Amino acid sequence: MMLRQIKHFQTTVQENSFTEAAERCHISQSGISQSIKALEEELGVKLITRKNRGFELTKAGEHFYKKSLIITADLEQLCRETTRTSRKEAAELSLGVLSTYNGDEFNRAIAAFSEKYPTVELKVSSGNHEDLYDGLRFGEIDLALNDQRRAFSDAYENLILTETVCYVELASHNPLANLDRVRVEELKNTPCILVASKEQQEEEQKFYHDIIGFQGEFLFAESLRAARVMIVSNRGVMPVEGPNRDTYFGATIKRLPLLRGQSQITRRYCAFWKKDNSGYYIEDFAEILKSMF
Description:
Number of helices: 9
Oligomer: single chain
Radius of gyration: 22 Å
Order of helices and strands: HHHEEHEHEHEEEEHEHEEEEH
Shape: globular
Helix content: 40-55%
Number of strands: 13
Largest sheet: 9 strands, mixed
Structural class: alpha/beta
């Protein structure tokens, strides 16, 4: 937690703006302010003095900023070295996949890779966009199948896999299930169910409200299974991506194309991995995954 607060402090100093720092860190402006305040309370010193709409660093703040840059750089290098050392001991590949992605390309890629490299241990985790992004940043995931929400970063390999259409899942006994498609504008009074950890709820809600266009109440589940229990209980609808597979859910859940205006909403999916963590197994898995689309 303290490392994240330090990162927020460093970014605020670099951007010379709480607003710009919040955008770069993908959190709210109040979240940046609270994070820095918590850091100050932890250290027992004042790092920043607010001036009108701006701020100035205190002497303690200047000292902490300069020293923290060295410490965080050393820590990131230590994490990379530790990860590389671990991989030398055992062939291992850590993969992440977006929990709401419903295509079978990822599973087929795993099967093909495992057949080609039977001695490589695969570790697979799932999560929302921010979970996977953090996993890549902190070295917990080697490669992630994720949706694109940010501009591509030069620090990552950004392999475009596909652009897929969006759906909503809802209870079969929901009156909306009688439609053959639904516009996001028509769901303004319907709760939107999202899979997100408590730490990521604000970010997920902001994306689905501001970018996708859901205007109603937001409900959260910690897993896809829990979310679908909420769906069959008719508590709301859940946005998903990938092919339409009503038969998979039997008679309990219906999947409808999700439109904005007259066009079905689309999402771009990519394979992401750090350039400084690139290696033979990662790149080969990426090529196998790309061939599945």
